[in-house]
UniProtKB/TrEMBL annotation:
It comes from the Bacteria. It is found in: Cell inner membrane. This is Biosynthetic peptidoglycan transglycosylase. Keywords: Cell inner membrane, Cell membrane, Cell shape, Cell wall biogenesis/degradation, Glycosyltransferase, Membrane, Peptidoglycan synthesis, Transferase, Transmembrane, Transmembrane helix. Pfam families: Transgly. It comes from Sphingomonas kaistensis. The chain crosses the membrane at residues 7-25. InterPro entries: Glyco_trans_51, Lysozyme-like_dom_sf, PBP_transglycosylase, Pep_trsgly. Residues 41-189 form the Glycosyl transferase family domain.
């Protein structure tokens, strides 16, 4: 019995040291990346520091994935309770994971459900909230989250879909990238259709709400917030290693002053209707439209 206690204590200490190391060292690879490499899909990633990532991308992640990011300590208990209630009624399983929980899972664990993994996820979520803080969590999340088949991080995703890096994205581009995050292998940010398009339009509107209400302020606390940047022209098609996918070259985006003229958002981020089947979301790649009609705000549930 004493030996088992020592083993558990040792594992807890090692996990804390592992998390502390990644506060200063960028995670070199994750279990999900290794799975893609072993499957022959490759794992393209181009790390970009948070100071260089366009703030609209941060706001899109908060608006689309976790509107209470700066208010909770890693767990959104209201969302978890709501997800448990809906799951108990049957139908599609939905989750209430925060950005912190998704980061813990993506960096230290594996994809898929199960009580064992969820328990470990809760432990690692607690550790990164205590040892990293909100700024580092967001930076790591935006660099390890899957943004396409064999593509990781918003910088590699921006190259894949828009032909330029993530340092200067339009609101439309940031919103479409955030719309891909819940189902990266089944969605495409280039000329999306169905739910993905409507969800992206909704997130584009929420970016203004996040900015107005300061819902991303914890990410930039104590630092000089990045200035708005003018998106660079497209660099042309990008072909990813281990993939036959070649992106199309989008037309130059409209000026930011045009993009920023969005309708006033409501005081709170409204809920979206239930997510639709993936089959209605995919369409052949074509030139993306930079100016899209506003859609009613939607917000799907975060995946497990």
């Amino acid at each position: 019995m004493l030996g088992l206690v020592k083993l558990i204590v040792g594992l807890l200490i090692l996990s804390a040291l592992w998390v502390l190391l990644y506060r200063f060292v960028n995670p070199p690879i994750t279990a999900t990346m290794m799975a893609d490499v072993m499957a022959g899909r490759g794992a393209e990633r181009e790390w970009m520091g948070l100071d260089e990532i366009d703030r609209d991308m941060v706001r899109a992640a908060v608006g689309g994935e976790d509107s209470k990011y700066c208010a909770h300590s890693g767990f959104d208990w209201d969302a978890i309770t709501d997800a448990a209630r809906r799951n108990a009624s049957g139908g599609r399983i939905r989750g209430g994971s925060t950005i912190s929980q998704q980061t813990a899972k993506n960096v230290f664990l594996w994809q898929g459900g199960g009580y064992v993994r969820k328990g470990m996820e809760a432990w690692f979520t607690f550790l990164i909230e205590q040892l990293w803080g909100k700024r580092r969590i967001m930076e790591v999340y935006l660099n390890v989250a899957e943004t396409g088949i064999g593509t990781y991080g918003v910088n590699a995703g921006s190259h894949r879909y828009f032909g330029h890096d993530a340092s200067a994205m339009t609101r439309t581009e940031a919103a479409r990238m955030a719309a891909v995050l819940p189902l990266p292998k089944g969605r495409d940010a280039i000329a999306p259709r169905g739910f993905t398009r409507r969800y992206g339009n909704s997130i584009a509107g929420r970016i203004g709400t996040v900015a107005r209400d300061g819902l991303d302020n914890c990410v930039y606390a104590g630092t000089a917030a990045p200035r708005d940047r003018t998106p660079p022209p497209s660099k042309g098609p990008v072909t990813l290693p281990g993939s036959d996918v070649e992106t199309s070259t989008p037309p130059p985006p409209p000026p930011r002053e045009v993009i920023d003229q969005l309708p006033a958002a409501s005081e709170t981020l409204p809920e979206a209707p239930p997510e639709e089947p993936v089959g209605d979301e995919l369409a052949p790649a074509e030139q993306p439209s930079q100016a899209e009609p506003a859609a009613e705000p939607e917000q799907p549930d975060n995946g497990l």
